[in-house]
Design a protein that fits this description.
alpha/beta; disordered C terminus; TIM Barrel
Length: about 375
């Protein structure tokens, strides 16, 4: 997947949400008077694309006209491109808004209506830009089959994009969680999201703090992070989120765990470990009577007991100088010590990768390119 000057091939990456609206469903995502600091923090925390939205697409939101939307997103786009070297996506379904924004440096269009504007695909192709095609099922017949309806709709949009010259490597697909008829369909889509891979394009998952997760919007962070972990495990190329640092921490930790090579089984480690036993029992694949299991007993063969010594032999032995020989560690003790070391090393590596939290006081990231950000004399970047 190519977006601007960057190519994304493996792993799971973050699209950070920046709403230039007054009515987006999650109030902290709305831009106030802190554009440069906000974008800097987004990049520092792990965003690799900034997605600018000029109107809310939540169910029931008022649809604003294209001049108003353009008036919101264009100044923000220009400022970001002036200060930062990062791909920028524009969340719009208006082809004229897309045209002006692509003229001013936008790298991708995020169309949540699956090309409802008939000119949109051609505009994107004319600018050699990338596109995120998002399915919108709100207007689909309610008796249509969920996954098949989404696949058919996305395929139709793909055909339109390819027909006007958008290259395959410039397309990413969003199944449209939150754009279905109800929460039940959103959950079904999440659980079957991997079926969209059959279309042959990378996937973006957008679940961040959406209503299908339940509860109040302020309480949906943990659920969102869990869906990001799922996306990482399933190999979806992007997640679109509000809370960048927390979701990046989940991606980093799970990615490291997935990449850690399994140790080959050796003669010394052969057999059933207590960890394996507990895992099997918890999963219901094995039932074990611990009292009759030899895992609770010493697995070393018992040495033959010497014949009882005579009194004369005992007396004779006590007259000789006895040298104490250190007891050899058993194989179980060695294996247990190695396993403990492995676990501690793993924890330490995870801590290194996720040892940061959102907010002030975080260190400056070396890979963030800023053309102008205050003065080196009066700006302490570490305080942002």
């Amino acid at each position: 997947m190519i977006i601007g000057k960057k190519e994304f091939t493996t792993g799971t990456h973050i699209m950070g949400i920046l709403n230039v609206t007054e009515d987006s469903f999650y109030e902290p995502s709305r831009l106030k008077n802190d554009l440069i600091e906000r974008v800097y923090c987004m990049i520092r925390d792990g965003a690799e694309i900034i997605d600018i939205g000029g109107q809310s697409t939540r169910p029931g939101a008022e649809v604003i006209k294209s001049p108003v939307e353009l008036g919101r997103v264009l100044p923000v786009l220009k400022e970001i491109k002036k200060h930062f070297d990062i791909p920028v996506s524009i969340d719009t379904f208006y082809s004229n808004v897309a045209d002006v924004c692509l003229d001013n440096g936008a790298d991708m269009i995020n169309d949540v209506t699956c090309f409802s504007d008939p000119k949109m695909a051609k505009v994107i192709a004319n600018h050699n830009a990338s596109v995120c095609i998002c399915h919108n099922r709100r207007n689909s017949p309610k008796d249509s089959k969920l996954i098949q309806d989404i696949i058919d709709g996305l395929q139709k949009a793909i055909d339109k994009a390819r027909g006007v010259g958008i290259r395959k490597e410039q397309i990413i697909l969003d199944g449209g969680i939150g754009f279905n008829h109800n929460a039940s369909e959103d959950w079904e889509l999440l659980l079957k999201y991997g079926q969209l891979k059959q279309l042959g394009y990378p996937l973006l998952l957008g679940t961040s703090r959406k209503s299908f997760l339940g509860g109040e919007v302020e309480d949906r962070l943990n659920a969102t992070v869990n869906t990001t972990a799922l996306a990482t495990k399933k190999g979806y190329l992007f997640v679109r989120v509000h809370d960048i640092a927390e979701n990046k921490a989940a991606i980093d930790a799970l990615s490291y765990a997935m990449e850690k090579p399994a140790e080959p089984e050796t003669e010394e480690k052969k057999g059933v470990s207590l960890y394996d036993l507990v895992t099997d029992v918890e999963s219901g694949t094995k039932k074990v009577d611990l009292e009759q299991s030899d895992i609770m007993a010493d697995e070393q063969p018992q040495e033959e007991q010497p014949a009882e010594e005579t009194k004369e032999e005992v007396v004779e032995e006590t007259t000789e100088e006895v040298q104490e020989v250190p007891q050899e560690e058993t194989q179980e003790e060695v294996a247990e010590e190695e396993e403990t070391q492995d676990i501690e090393a793993f924890k330490e590596e995870v801590r290194k990768k996720v040892d940061y939290k959102p907010g002030r006081g975080l260190p400056m990231r070396d890979d963030i390119k800023i053309s102008r950000f205050g003065s080196d004399d009066d700006t302490d970047y570490s305080t942002y």
